[in-house]
């Protein structure tokens, strides 16, 4: 008794130690999988944001160059006379209007004189002398600015809409004579950039924080504070990706930015981290649930009492047939292919066949049901072709292929696949297997030991001298479990395997021939 007690204690300790080690391994594996998956999702988001901000930056750089060229062209064609006297010159208006027509993205082209009065515009002739002295570009030119200037958004006095404006000064011997400018339709750029970045907030700002353009996701932002993370990052590098506070809220977000050196613009795109990691959270929940289930199973095994049933009282185990691993490999490959292409119906079919193979291997009876022989043969033919097995050709005779038998589609498909795989394995030279379906009736007064009844006889035949009945153990178990039989016939190099299946109209058992 002492030895038995000590043996039981040691056994329990060993089993619990093994369960604890296995649980720790599962926990660490699950944690590693969750962390790796998180980095993968963040990496995808970074790549996507970088591609988006690069596309917008390239387009914006091209747009700025185009606007600068348009301004240079206008400067070269403006009359050398005093701009104040050109207000009544229709040719200047015609020049601006033609330039506007050649560039559909422009809302208007205009000229301002040295006193800040509007002289000419592509919108109308003559144009009222609106006062532009308080515009940011005019104040910048009076303070010594001499190059291309992108004005802060301002409402136009003629269009009454907020414009994206680029200007150049008109200088004569270093003296400011006026300015020429173009106003771009902001809706066109916002719409275009919105399609480039999707739902992600986008803004285009000067390096001093003035926001020039923004999509709907960032429409509440008019100016970036001096200590804004985007501006600080832009001062340190010309491009980058970082995690910081969202543009429109206090939550965390991924930001991608690029700096255009001329004329000192920052393009930034953001994506909320909560949205980026939404798919990762679902994956993490699934991994965690599987890990918990596995650890619960280990805990149950660790604390089970050790059995002490005498060997004489232990019933002999039921015989279990080893499943055909080649058949399972084929079905698993087909299942993966169906899942990767999103073919849900095909995936369910392969899953049902795998379940039927495992049930037959355990000796469980085939699932009750009905199947149309021709339809199942068609599915099996497709699987055989995809797996590189011999072509399975159905040779229909009248309506025999539409016979319905007492066997579910999945077990029937598993039995047919096992026979086709066995024939191909036993006779590698087989290139084609012909399939026939015929109606068979066994009467009570016929010789032999077969019971009377009606059957669908599915014949699979190929020209070969090879073959062996042992190759169809799984298929034979499924068919015989449904009350049918598997019969082999040979004659003059023809190998024919017949599956006798009870018809729905009159089911009966048929012993093996």
List the main descriptive attributes of the protein structure presented here.
513 residues, 5-stranded antiparallel beta sheet, elongated, 6-stranded antiparallel beta sheet, Beta-Lactamase, 2 domains, Heat Shock Protein 90
Verbal overview:
By secondary structure, the protein is an alpha+beta fold. It has 2 domains: about 10-305, PAS domain (Beta-Lactamase, 2-Layer Sandwich); about 325-500, Heat Shock Protein 90 (2-Layer Sandwich). The chain contains 12 helices and 18 strands. Strands 1, 2, 3, 4, 5 and 6 form a 6-stranded antiparallel β-sheet that branches. Strands 8-7-11-10-9 form a 5-stranded antiparallel β-sheet, sandwiched between helices. Helix 1 (about 1-75) packs antiparallel against helix 7 (about 280-300), helix 8 runs antiparallel to helix 9 and helix 9 crosses helix 11. The protein is elongated and about 120 Å long. The chain starts with a helix and ends in an 11-residue tail after the last strand. Mean pLDDT is about 80; it is low at about 310-315, about 315-320 and about 505-513.
Poorly predicted sequence stretches spanning 5 or more consecutive residues: 308-314, 316-320, 506-513
- Annotation, overall tally of beta strands: 18
How far the N terminus sits from the C terminus, by CA atoms, comes to 58 Å
Which class of the largest domain in CATH terms? Alpha Beta
Q: Hey, roughly how much beta strand do the residues contain?
A: 15-25%
Q: Helix tally?
A: 12
Oligomer, anyone?
single chain
Major sheet details: 6 strands, antiparallel
The computed structural class is alpha+beta
| Global morphology | elongated
Mean pLDDT across every amino acid position:
79
* Order of helix and strand elements from N to C terminus: HHEEHEEEEHEEHEEEHHHHEHEEHEEHEE
Could you give me the name of the CATH homologous superfamily of the largest domain?
PAS domain
Percent of residues in helices comes to 40-55%
- The CATH architecture category of the largest domain equals 2-Layer Sandwich
Radius of gyration, rounded? 41 Å
What is the fold-level CATH name, i.e. the topology of the largest domain?
Beta-Lactamase
The overall number of domains is 2
Main location: membrane
Subcellular location: Cell membrane
InterPro entries: dCache_1, Sensor-like_sf
Keywords: Cell membrane, Membrane, Transmembrane, Transmembrane helix
């Amino acid at each position: 008794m002492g030895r038995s007690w000590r043996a039981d204690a040691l056994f329990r300790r060993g089993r619990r130690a093994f369960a604890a080690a296995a649980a720790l391994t599962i926990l660490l594996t699950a944690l590693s999988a969750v962390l790796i998956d998180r980095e993968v999702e963040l990496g995808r988001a970074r790549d996507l944001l970088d591609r988006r901000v690069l596309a917008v930056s390239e387009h914006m750089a091209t747009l700025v160059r185009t606007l600068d060229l348009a301004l240079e062209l206008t400067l070269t064609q403006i009359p050398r006379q005093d701009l104040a006297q050109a207000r009544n010159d229709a040719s200047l208006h015609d020049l601006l209007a033609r330039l506007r027509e050649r560039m559909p993205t422009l809302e208007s082209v205009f000229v301002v004189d040295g006193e800040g009065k509007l002289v000419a515009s592509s919108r109308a002739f003559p144009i009222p002398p609106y006062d532009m002295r308080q515009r940011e570009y005019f104040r910048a030119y009076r303070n010594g600015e001499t190059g291309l200037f992108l004005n802060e958004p301002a409402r136009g006095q003629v269009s009454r809409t907020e414009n994206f404006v680029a200007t150049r000064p008109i200088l004569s011997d270093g003296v400011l004579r006026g300015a020429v400018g173009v106003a771009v339709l902001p809706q066109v750029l916002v719409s275009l950039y919105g399609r480039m970045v999707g739902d992600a907030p986008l803004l285009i700002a000067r390096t001093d924080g003035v926001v020039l353009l923004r999509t709907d996701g960032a429409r509440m932002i008019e100016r970036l504070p001096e200590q804004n993370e985007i501006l600080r990052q832009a001062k340190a590098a010309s491009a980058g990706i970082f995690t910081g506070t969202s543009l429109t809220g206090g939550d965390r977000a991924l930001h991608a930015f690029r700096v255009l050196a001329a004329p000192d613009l920052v393009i930034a795109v953001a994506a909320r981290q909560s949205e980026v990691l939404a798919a990762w959270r679902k994956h993490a929940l699934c991994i965690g649930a599987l890990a918990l289930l596995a650890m619960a199973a280990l805990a149950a095994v660790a604390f089970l009492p050790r059995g002490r049933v005498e060997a004489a009282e232990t019933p002999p185990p039921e015989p279990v047939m080893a499943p055909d691993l080649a058949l399972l490999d084929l079905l698993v490959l087909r299942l993966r292919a169906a899942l990767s292409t999103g073919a849900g119906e095909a995936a369910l079919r392969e899953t049902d066949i795998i379940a039927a193979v495992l049930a037959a291997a355990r000796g469980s009876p085939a699932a009750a049901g009905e199947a149309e022989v021709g339809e199942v043969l068609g599915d099996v033919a497709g699987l055989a072709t995809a797996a590189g097995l011999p072509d399975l050709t159905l040779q229909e005779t009248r309506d025999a292929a539409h016979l319905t038998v007492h066997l579910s589609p999945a077990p029937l498909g598993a039995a047919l696949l096992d026979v086709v795989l066995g024939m191909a394995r036993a006779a590698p030279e087989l290139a084609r297997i012909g399939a026939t379906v015929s109606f068979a009736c066994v009467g009570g007064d016929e010789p032999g030991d077969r019971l009377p009844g009606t059957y669908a006889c599915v014949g699979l035949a190929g020209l070969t001298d090879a073959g062996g009945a042992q190759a169809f153990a799984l298929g034979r178990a499924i068919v015989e479990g449904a009350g049918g039989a598997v019969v082999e016939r040979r004659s003059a190099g023809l190998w024919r395997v017949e599956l006798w299946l009870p018809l729905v109209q009159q089911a009966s058992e048929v012993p093996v021939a």
